[in-house]
Amino acid sequence: MLQVNGSKNQSLSVNLNEPLSLQPHHSGTTSMKVKLFGKIPFKTVKVNVMPDLRVIPGGQTIGVKVKSAGILVVGHHQVLSDNGAKKSPGEEAGLRLGDLIVKIDGKSINEVRKIADLVEQAGNAHRPLAITYKRNGTYAETQLNPVMDAQEHNWRLGLYIRDSAAGVGTLTFYAPEQGVYGALGHVITDMDTQTPIEVGEGQILQSNVSSINKSQNGDPGEKRANFVKDSKVLGNIERNTPFGIFGKMHENPNHSYSDKSIPVSFAEEVKEGPAQILTVVNGQRVERFDIEISHVTKQPAPATKGMVIKITDKRLLDKTGGIVQGMSGSPIIQNGKLVGAVTHVFVNDPSSGYGCFIEWMLQDAGVLMKSNESKTENKPSATGTAA
């Protein structure tokens, strides 16, 4: 008889004189003890229990609009006061680059345009603003005294701040059964502070590639793209993680390479050898290009930079010089299965770069159950930049 207790590490007793059947419900490793006639321990084997997952591969260029969950501090500036002194009130209050201001005077705040009135009220009343901010996952409070700018005649905080970001990337997959998507393959960071953006809300939209700035050694290129006029919102953005952006999507976007779903491969199944990527180099047409997976890193737990890839397709090399920024998220397909996504380009060799395993993206999308094991990060072996 076969008995399953339902936990991830399941102990199974199998009687060899009876048929064996195993119905997997989620990913994991099952420890199976085999007994002869149910009595004598014979051998312990490991069986991979993986769901039969299928998703629709992406490749479409998407526009990304993100609104942060607060006001991000991206710099300090000096304010010239009436007495001739120069100082930054925000810096004196202890605010640093990358801090996320979430409340002012006890009120939640996530729009820069709403700050001017609060600053003017506090300045005219000669009182400090009570600032609640988030730094490295921890909340803290401080007092900030606005200063009257002697040149502009306005009350100033001495801070450069931002509440939103926009850019382009590539859709990796759409999972129609769950109504979710994954894209980019790496975290979205603020361009000035290089800190991950904590998403308050966001959207992905149709985008059109207008031109390519080719990659050269030491100078990664980029896709030049624009949002399609009156473009349809493809989905929302709910999470920004080390493996990309994720959210709800209710239908497969137009201009797909194929509307058919394909199976996925898990990290341990990916092999060195030929593969393909799906991406856009002109307009909205998704094309298939040949690559080589030149190195695979064994990752029993989620970590970025799971594989090293090399562009081998002459058409793509002639057009882009290799991997370019905006190509991040391009799905990697091997032996008819989705195995990962392009994430970074090597600055010193733009024909090569990193890819992440699709398994980790599926976990962050909520399609796969997450492992209880802690995340680890393998160190890069070459200088790379997000593609």
From TrEMBL:
Gene: spoIVB
Protein's name in the database: SpoIVB peptidase
Transmembrane segments: none
Domain Peptidase S55 residues, every copy: 138-377
Keyword Hydrolase set for record: yes
Superkingdom to which the source organism belongs: Bacteria
Listed InterPro entries: PDZ_6, PDZ_sf, Peptidase_S1_PA, Peptidase_S55, SpoIVB
Keywords carried by this UniProt record: Hydrolase, Protease, Serine protease
Pfam hit, one: Peptidase_S55
Source organism (scientific name): Paenibacillus radicis
GO MF terms held by the record: serine-type peptidase activity
